[in-house]
Design a protein that fits this description.
alpha+beta, 5-stranded antiparallel β-sheet, Sarcosine oxidase subunit gamma, SoxG, TrmE/GcvT-like
């Protein structure tokens, strides 16, 4: 078996590859795109201050339910002592090693969780309406604009929702990989109500 894997390496396949064509058929008012794989590290750190910010190269958000840009990725507040750091330019191993080296001397920990979640980008004028059919949080742009985040339920799937615009027309949904297909089907079904029909 090991010899077979060396001569025929496993190909990384995005769990939402089969939904690409269905996403492409949606109108611009409800755009859904599967985001590429990104490196993700869960960080636990008891105290956040200048030393942690300098070591990580980012001011970790300390306001609940917020996120900030962090290099080529994001730093998402998950709890009083927990953050999700992402990177589009580092491998999972590189990100985990860099973050672990930064937080270990401060009594923190870093765990690679890259395979845990898949990202879906939701855009368009009706995307808030689609989200509202299965999510109970207030998504009005005055409340949930750029830089806001929430751990919530969408169509019975646990997600992390990130607001990317102040107009309320651009979101990222992070969902567990094992629920990605279910949520993709749910989103496509919910989008039907807000998709114009042609006669």
């Amino acid at each position: 078996m090991a010899e077979l894997l060396r001569t025929h390496p496993l190909e990384a396949r995005h769990p939402l590859m089969a939904w690409t064509a269905a996403f492409a058929r949606l109108p611009a008012t409800v755009g859904i795109t599967a985001e590429p794989f990104v490196a993700m590290v869960d960080v636990r750190l008891g105290t956040v201050g200048a030393e942690a910010s300098a070591a990580l190269g980012v001011d970790l958000p300390t306001t609940p339910n917020t996120w900030v840009p962090a290099g080529t990725g994001r730093a998402v507040w998950l709890g009083p002592d927990e953050w999700l750091l992402t990177s589009t330019s580092e491998s999972p191993e590189e990100l985990e090693a860099r973050v672990r080296a930064a937080v270990l001397p401060l009594g923190g920990s870093a765990t690679d969780v890259s395979a845990q979640r898949i990202g879906l980008r939701l855009t368009g004028a009706r995307v808030r309406d689609v989200l509202a059919t299965g999510c109970s949080i207030d998504l009005h742009p005055r409340v949930f604009g750029r830089g806001r985040s929430a751990q919530t339920i969408l169509g019975q799937a646990g997600i992390v929702l990130l607001g990317l615009s102040d107009a309320g027309e651009d979101f990222v949904v992070l969902v567990r990989s094992s629920f990605a297909g279910y949520l993709a089907d749910w989103l496509l079904d919910a989008a039907l109500e807000f998709t114009p029909t042609t006669s």
